[in-house]
Amino acid sequence: MKYSDLIDLPKPGTYNIGLVSAKNSDMLKYFGHPVLDGKYDPKGKCMSPNDPEFQKRVASRKVGPFRATGLLPALDSLKSIFERVEREVPDLYPLLRNNGMLCSRYTRIKGKIGPGISNHSWGTALDMFIEGDTEKQGDNKVQRGLLILANYFNAAGWYWGAAFPTEDGMHFEVSRGLLAQWKKEGLI
Predict the structure, then answer these.
(1) Longest CA pairwise span in the chain (Å)
(2) Separation of alpha carbons 15 and 38, rounded Å
(3) How many other CB atoms are there within 10 angstroms of residue 99's CB atom?
(4) In what residue span(s) does the Peptidase M15C domain sit (predicted)?
């Protein structure tokens, strides 16, 4: 058994229990646009946030087996998640790879751009893979290691993109409920 092996997507209702994906309306309510005037690249290319107020809310840090750039409370949450993974699944931990977190752009689903704004734009979403093998969006297969990770992310209030209408098993994002909790705690 390898953590990078592709397995069938688990049945709906076995993950993301009680979690809801944060919508663009949630993100805009809490943060506004990370890109001034909401002018994202029409071809879906990654942009760095250029809103000075939003830039104060992000940083780059080592969060576990890699560095990530994202929203400050999201980075703290990732550090806690990966500390737990390192303790409980130590042979999986060094195989984890980051495929990007902060990337202000429109959504991309099977190569189609938009119309929504990706939650990566605010540094609240992370794409991951195992041992150099990336996931293929929409094939209803996930890497075994990502299924294991989903339990840790869900327990911390992160939503797994495997439940999107077009499966995105490498994608984890801060849930609507976790954003509300951070707002209540004064973290955002």
Answers:
(1) 49
(2) 33
(3) 13
(4) 116-174
| Strand-strand pairing, 106-109 and 112-117 | antiparallel
Does the pTM surpass 0.90? The reply is yes
Q: Which residue has the tokens 């737990």?
A: 84
Residue ranges and CATH numbers for the domains of the chain are 19-184 (3.30.1380)
Residues 44, 95: Cα–Cα separation, whole Å = 29
How far is Cα 115 from Cα 108, in angstroms, rounded to an integer?
9
Q: In the structure encoding, which two tokens stand for residue 2, read together?
A: 């390898």
* Residue 79 token pair: 């550090």
Encoding tokens for residue 50?
């250029």
DSSP 15-56: SSTT--BPPHHHHHHHH--SSGGG---TT---B----HHHHT
pLDDT-derived band at 104 (thresholds 50, 70, 90) equals very high
Question: Which helix or strand (DSSP H or E) is residue 48 part of?
Answer: none
Tokens of 147: 């299924």
Tokens of 166: 């077009």
**Matching residue, tokens 């704004």:** 117
Name the nearest CA neighbour of 39 among 51, 31, 55: 51
Least Cα distance to 161 among 124, 133, 188, 113 occurs for 124
Report the C-alpha gap between 19 and 16 in whole angstroms: 5
In tens, the pLDDT along 115-172 reads 889 999 999 999 999 987 677 787 889 999 999 999 999 999 999 999 998 889 999 9
